[in-house]
User: What shape does this take?
Amino acid sequence: MVVVYSVLLMGVLGFSFGVFLAYAAQKFKVEEDNRLKEILEILPGINCGACGFPGCEAYAKAILKGKADVNRCLPGRPQGVPEKIKKVLEGSSG
Amino acid sequence: MKVFLLFFAAIFINNFILARFLGICPFLGVSKKLETALGMGLAVIFVMTVSSAIAWTLDRLLISLGLDFLRTIVFIVVIATFVQFVELFLKKTNPSLYEALGIFLPLITTNCAILGVVILNSMMKLGFLEAVFHALGSSLGFTMALVIFAGVREKLEMYDLPEPFRGTAGALITAGLLSMAFMGFQGMVKI
Assistant: This one.
């Protein structure tokens, strides 16, 4: 019985808080540079910090601001991440 | 009466940073500028008060269902939700503060001061109003300590300190002195 109650309670709590946050996310939506999302999708998303930034998002922002080179992502190098990011940056400006 | 006692005791006597030594991470992390410190303090006030009100209700539910062992995880879920909410809200309304707080904003989630308040509320078996005022007082005390400390640190930047005392070392000594000053309040109220 305890297990059932626990699962039920956590499920209901998680669901209701999730709905609340989803609603808040919609309401407080911020228009972001589309390229940020594209670069984030290209990056491995493992937040290893090898690029010298705290997490992939910070690195993507630094790239967009022109503060960082595209070739700093070590784990992504074999998959050709730098080239892909370059393409995104060039595609938008050209 | 007990509500007011709890409220003021939480601000001055049992100050979370200076007397209980909880929540030291943001205390040292975001106290370099007065403005950021104030922003952090406001975020903590909101999260602490709202989550302690909700956590109190859920705590009663947990006790009545005999699920006390879920307390910690339920509290963390509640706190994390409100921290996320604050993050979304700040990102929309005050992007510069959002940038300035950086990683310390999501870190409120696991801030021991906030979890500490809700667990203390539960342990001290406080009523709803008492719990909310205890949390409000604690968060005000947190903000006060943070703002005082940030003010001192801003001034400290301008003085010619000896090399070994610059930066974090000086900040830690300042924190110790501040904490000693607040020791004067110790034992004024017994709860």
Q: What stands out?
A: Chain A touches chain B at residues 2, 5-6, 9-10, 13-14, 17, 20-21, 24-25, 28-30, 54 (CB under 8 Å).
